[in-house]
Amino acid sequence: MKKIFKISGMHCVSCSKIIEMELKDKVKSISINHETGKAVIDFDENKISEKEIKEMIKQSGYRAE
Q1: How far apart are CA 14 and CA 48, in angstroms?
Q2: What is the CB-side half-sphere exposure of residue 27 using CA atoms within 13 A?
Q3: Residue 12 confidence (pLDDT)
């Protein structure tokens, strides 16, 4: 499942890298643009839920919608 998440609180490339590092082993692919605040995440909903992804982003210090 590919989904676009709106992430708030990012202000530089390092912010997006922090989230990518947190999720990279749990999703198929992840692409984040800190300027637009959007993340395109492709994941297997049988392995990780949308709620779990949002929680991991929150634990990294950002907010996902």
Answers
A1: 24
A2: 24
A3: 95
Paired residues of 42 in beta bridges: 2, 29
> pLDDT tens for residues 6-33?
999 999 999 999 999 999 999 999 999 9
Reading across the β-sheet that carries 2-8, which strands appear in turn?
29-33, 38-42, 2-8, 63-64
Closest CA to 38 of 8, 2, 1: 8
Averaged confidence pLDDT in the chain: 96
Q: Domain limits of the chain? A: 2-64
Euclidean distance between the first and final Cα of the chain, in Å?
Answer: 16
* CATH of the domain spanning 2-64: 3.30.70.100
Q: pTM value?
A: 0.93
